[in-house]
Amino acid sequence: MDNNKELVERRMTYLTLGSVFFALLAAFSLRDNKKKIKPFDFALLGLSAYRMGRLIAFDRVTEPYRAPFTQTVPDSTGAGDTVEPKGTGWRRAVGELISCPICAGTWIAAGLTYGLELAPRPTRVLMTVMGAIGLGELFHSLTEALGWVGQLAREQAGALATERSRAK
Fold first, then answer.
1. Residue 68 CB contacts under 8 Å (≥ 6 apart), including other chains
2. What residues contact 103, with CB distance under 8 A and at least 6 apart?
3. How sure is the predictor about 2, in pLDDT bands with cuts at 50, 70 and 90?
4. How much is the pLDDT for 138?
5. pTM here?
6. What are the CA-CA distances from residue 158 to residues 152, 153, 154 (Å)?
């Protein structure tokens, strides 16, 4: 019975959060706004939402803010840690939202879009900083992945060379 109550509470939280999201979206969509988002702002918005979603979901600096809703545990590979929601009901629903960088990024993108309308100058400053960091993070990930591929290729070449020398 308690499990069913927790599920209902969590679903009500999802419904409330979704309703707030769509109500704000509708309110901003109905505004008489002649401005359109420029392609540069759109790219900056995407990079900012990417970086800020990861900041909220994973970075240590935001861990104290996530602590009531999430826990950091070793991931299934044993190679690192992952953030998981904790608790029940509304607490778990919020934990699921903020432990998912795509979910958090959706809310962030909406907030930044509204910010471009309501307070464009500070919103662009924040988007510029977060967009630059987001782009840097993408380059870092690419460099790291290429390094792993290179290391694996070196190890395979070394193993092949060792195997060939033993065969002689």
1. 87, 91
2. 53, 96, 97
3. low
4. 93
5. 0.78
6. 10, 8, 6
